[in-house]
Write a structure and sequence with these properties.
Blueprint lengths: L8 E5 L4 E5 L11 H23 L3 H19 L6 H4 L11 H20 L7 H12 L37 H13 L7 H15 L6 H15 L11 H6 L1 H14 L2 H38 L5 H13 L2 E2 L1 H8 L3 H13 L4 E6 L2 E5 L1 H8 L4
């Protein structure tokens, strides 16, 4: 089907509101927009560069953890949480009580993303995998009463106090199984010739329109993009996350999705997502280069600690995953006394690797500020 001929679906009258029933997507897709072709080429190149770079970075998994934390925090913030990345990296007891529900949602997202990537080794990208991920996402959090791991069995809506005054009402719940089955088939249909980045653009739109869960659809839908790229081998490591770009262009993101349903304009949405992939891929490569430069510098400093250099190296590896620590954490990590841990942290302060961050009671935290700044700069 050519984008120009696409009919997004139909509005269905329910009791006191109308829901939107989207058209099926599992078929061929073509387009005549030359800008889409250009953006597709640029986005594919950017992903290739990011993928190649991630393969040459030693111990790349150390740094991917921070990408995951950043994505979890940003994607959750799009949905209304107020946790900052520094809070997401902190233990629960160092988070203000009124922010702990938000903190828990971010921690669940980190856990859900990690499990989903691991599950891809034994499961195809499927409804089953998405449901497993959703179950972890809502576990013990504010959405725990909203059918974790199950497709919805009632009507949901976006905006407003109910379906009658909502901004958008997704399809009636009885349509969800067929629509999600069609979407799953589309992701894996080898008999149609649709480039992967076009396919995932259409798939993300369709997922968000179906809104198959009672809660967590935005977060799962954004994670779907990364999972698809990994499952198809475009990324060997989960290094591309789009929530930062989407948050910065949130109005354009929602407008592009709404425009499809209102005027069948799929092209604007595809252009938006290809641009997001291109720009995020370029920034990701730049961040990896900056990480390598910083790593070289601080590891030379760590070698100056002589007989303590081995513990210094281990602490640096921990900081690449989690750049906020306390002496208690370091003592547990290396099975050393609190005094020894504090001494190592003082060495890192002297070398300008760590700085004092925040104190809660008797617990002082320290931050690997220059490393954390590399991820904060992505938000600017």
């Amino acid at each position: 089907m050519n984008f120009k001929e696409f009919k997004a679906g139909r509005w269905v009258q329910q009791y006191e509101y109308r829901s939107f029933s989207p058209a099926l997507v599992n078929h061929e897709w073509t387009w005549e927009d030359p800008l889409i072709n250009t953006l597709l080429e640029e986005a594919t190149w950017a992903i290739g560069e990011l993928n190649a770079f991630s393969l040459i970075v030693p111990d790349v998994d150390l740094f991917i953890q921070m990408h995951v934390v950043k994505e979890a925090n940003t994607s959750s913030r799009i949905e209304g949480t107020k946790t900052e990345i520094e809070e997401a990296l902190s233990p629960k007891e160092m988070v203000a009580p009124e922010r702990r529900d938000d903190w828990q949602e971010v921690q669940n997202y980190i856990k859900a993303m990690g499990q989903a990537i691991e599950d891809l080794h034994k499961l195809p990208l499927s409804n089953r995998l998405l449901q497993n991920t959703h179950k972890i996402l809502l576990e013990g959090a504010r959405g725990k009463a909203k059918l974790p791991g199950e497709f919805r069995k009632s009507q949901n809506w976006i905006g407003g106090s109910g379906p009658s005054d909502a901004v958008f009402v997704p399809p009636y719940h009885t349509e969800v199984p067929e629509l999600m089955s069609d979407l799953e088939k589309f992701l894996h249909n080898d008999h149609i010739h649709v480039p992967n980045l076009i396919r995932i653009a259409i798939a993300h739109y369709q997922f968000e329109t179906i809104h198959p869960f009672l809660d967590g659809n935005g977060r799962i839908g954004r994670l779907l993009i990364t999972l698809y790229l990994v499952s198809k081998g475009l990324l060997k490591k989960p290094t591309l996350y789009l929530s930062n770009h989407i948050e910065k262009h949130k109005t354009a993101y929602y407008d592009a999705l709404s425009r499809i349903r209102e005027s069948n304009d799929l092209g604007q949405w595809v252009r938006f997502l290809l641009t997001a992939i291109r720009d995020t891929g370029i920034k990701g490569t730049q961040t990896f280069q900056a990480i390598l430069d910083l790593r070289k510098e601080v590891e030379i400093k760590a070698l100056s600690l002589g007989k303590r250099s081995e513990n210094a190296r281990l602490l640096l590896n921990h900081l690449y995953r989690k750049p906020l620590v306390t002496p208690v954490e370091v003592a547990k990590l290396f099975h050393v006394t609190h005094q020894t841990a504090s001494s190592l942290i003082r060495d890192f302060e002297y070398l300008n690797i760590l700085k004092k961050w925040e104190k809660k009671g008797r617990s002082q935290s320290y931050v690997f500020a220059r490393y954390l700044a590399l991820f904060l700069e992505q938000s600017m």
